[in-house]
Amino acid sequence: MTSDPPQSTDDSWADAEFFSDEEESTTNAQGWRSFDKSGGHIRSASPSIRSERSTSSDEPAPSYSHGDFKGLKIKFESEDGQRTWTEPAHLFTEDSPLFNNVVEHDRGVEIFNPDPISKLPGLKRHPIRKLNKGPGERLKYRLEGVTPFDFDSLMVGLRPKLGQEIPYERLCPMLVLATDWAFESIRNYTIAALSKHEDLPIPRILIARRARVPQWLLDPYVTLSTRMTPLSKYEAKALGIDSVLKISDARAKVLERRLSLIAGPRPGTFLNRWTFFHSNCWMVASAAWRKALTETKYHKPPRLNGPRTTTAMQAMQAALQDQAQKPGDGRRLCAGCQATNGLAEWLNLSADSVLVRRYLKAAIGSEVELWAKPSNTSGTT
């Protein structure tokens, strides 16, 4: 008996600092259609998004033995039995060593221990199956926890067309199944395609966890930690308690830095020069900044289907406008201070991102043993 090869791991996996056992997201029974669908389309730059080694005869052969599956068909059945797909076996075996082992095992070509199908989440042998040798030979499997939409999305990757446009909502389940079923070339393609989208932070975190793409995690965590509005109930539930606590700590540090600006700077405390406001304008800016930070009317909550959050600069501008509408000349910036970039220099909002990134890496880096475990289909440990 032969041991089947383990799934290949992503070299960048060592940078995944935001996974924990309780945060592993469960498989969405409705597929990934709940994610934002307004991301546009990605144009395929190649007639094939599958294994690039097929384009060069000089590259080494795969490290696994791809069997002769000419004429072999695989029949897939949806979990409810309402949909079936019959596809050539080579579509699934050419780029996935694990799928190749399952087919060889079920045909009796080579027996593996443990059973290789145990490493393909969402795929089970059909309870009513009969392997017919010779012409018309077929294998039969049932999809469990994989919706027809999910499987159709994978087939878009397995049957690419020249110049085709793959919508965002297709790329997400394609990435998940390519990860679960070890289609490395399709996984690499979808990661590159999805990286061009600017997602809402929660969907990006969920898909990164589910498909084990750690390089996507830091930016949305920074976004959630530096925006004006706190986490919503939906976001907190999706993230898990561990992430919520760390984001709350990061937000507290950001607020502390922002409030400290009200006590300064003073002349000579920033690059030895007075770069910001006249003394009266300084008082106006400080009062507006305090309102922007503490009054919720300047904080627009995020939408589930699109961004609506208020940036810190937008909140500041709104507070300044409200002050300017009140009676008295001392409630607005003078023309000179309005014309300069002193406001942006004073707030220095880029420092918030630096602060949060440093904090998150230090706070989560010690918990490597929690996120290093690969996810399972149920989301439990």
TrEMBL record:
Residues 1-70 are annotated as: Disordered. Residues 12-25 have a biased composition (Acidic residues). This is BTB domain-containing protein. It comes from the Eukaryota. Residues 1-11 have a biased composition (Polar residues).
